[in-house]
Amino acid sequence: MNTDTLSGAATDVSGKVKETLGGAIGDKSLQSEGAADQLTGTVQKTVGQAKDVVEENIRPLVDYVRQFSKERPFTAAAVAGVLGIALINTLRGK
User: Are 28 and 58 in contact (CB under 8 A)?
Assistant: First the structure.
């Protein structure tokens, strides 16, 4: 869990409290502010969860590629060249 996920959860909870309090005292402005805070908190939690997924899944792949490049620099350069040519041909429509 990262700081975005924790901050988003806190914002979501405070938004729920504001919305409930606004409903209890009849303050529509406070109620709306609470709903907005909940939405902000949900978005922030989602961003934090996405960061966690990227960190858990992409980081090992990047580390593997770096290690492979250090151990086999000529093979890595050849693979990069082939992928570059394939990308250029794809973008040109061939």
Answer: no
CA end-to-end distance (rounded Å), the chain = 44
Backbone angles phi, psi at 48, to 5 degrees: -60, -40
Give the C-alpha separation, 72 to 30, whole Å: 61
Same domain, 66 and 82: yes
**Model confidence band, residue 4 (pLDDT cutoffs 50, 70, 90):** confident
Q: Which residues span the domain enclosing 17?
A: 1-29
Locate 87 and state its tokens.
């990308």
Split at pLDDT 50, 70, 90, the class of 16 is very high
Same domain, 19 and 45: no
Instruction: Tell me if 2 sits within 8 A of 51, measured CB to CB.
Output: yes
On the 0-12 / 13-18 / 19+ scale of CB atoms within 10 A, 52 is middle
